[in-house]
Amino acid sequence: MMGDTLSFRSADTLSLLRQEQASPAKADTDSLQLADLHAVQEVDPGFEGTPISYSPRTDDAIALTLLACFLLSSIALARGKKFLSQQVKDFMLHRERASIFDSSTAADVRYLLVLVLQTCVLSGITFLNYFHDTCPALMNHVSPLLLLGIYVGFCLAYFLLKWLLYMFLGWTFFDKNKTNMWLESYSALIYYVGFALFPFVLFLVYFDLSLTNLVIIGSIILIFTKILMFYKWIKLFFHQLSGLFLLILYFCALEIVPCLLLYQGMIQMNNILLIKF
């Protein structure tokens, strides 16, 4: 009986010794497996998600800009509707009157300046959509908000330089009254182009118009504006048939060439931004 007890105790002791010897080995194995798992996680972090390409439709800055343009247009139409309608009548019927800055209030002039700025902003959004379709890599390298600011600045500089050029040429070759009438007509065209651009930009951004439709509709707006400008030029500066050819040359030099220079300037700026960023 004592022998059996001693044999059982010896067997238990041996099994405990084996478990104690096996436990460190098992712990070492678990440690090695855990280290391999961490190594695998560090080497292979997982699949990277596909980044979503930029779209003006999802840009909050553009949405806020369009909302601000809508509010400003509503305020200008509500408070200066009579003055704006008078500008259209004067443009189409060729009525001579005092200068806009003499006969209008300071509030009316402020509304007109805001509408001119709105035209520049909407033109900038149109160019942003155009270059988004023609040069998608540009949006991945440069902030779209920065691009929008650059395009708006280009449009603002374009209209300002043309205003100064008209003023210089008008006061050099024509009398002051006709020059003022042309500058008023030019201003009226700018802010009414802004009204025409607003629904176009809404469709362009939120209905995802194709590049072909963008170019076609934008060209129609531009050509119609140039036709109205040429009509006003004939009314103001055309007196005899012999001067028609000279008038056409002046029109091409002052209207067509600056548009091409504006477009080329934006393309060169895009190339510089791609190189810098």
Describe the structure.
By secondary structure, the chain is mostly helical. It has one domain. It is 85% helix and 0% strand. It has helices at residues 2-43, 60-93, 100-103, 106-134, 136-141, 144-173, 176-206, 211-237, 244-276. It starts with a helix and ends with a helix. This is DUF4271 domain-containing protein.
Number of strands: 0
What percent of residues are in strands?
under 5%
Shape: globular
Whole-number mean pLDDT: 77
- Mind summarizing the main beta sheet? none
**End-to-end Cα distance:** 92 Å
Residues in helices, as a percent range:
over 70%
User: What radius of gyration results from the CA coordinates?
Assistant: 36 Å
Total count of helical runs of at least 4 residues: 9
How many domains comprise the coordinates? Answer: 1
Which consecutive residue ranges, at least 5 long each, have pLDDT under 50?
1-14, 19-28, 37-44
Structural class: mainly alpha
Secondary-structure element order, N to C:
HHHHHHHHH
Keywords: Membrane, Transmembrane, Transmembrane helix
InterPro entries: DUF4271
Pfam families: DUF4271 (PF14093)
Organism: Bacteroides caecimuris
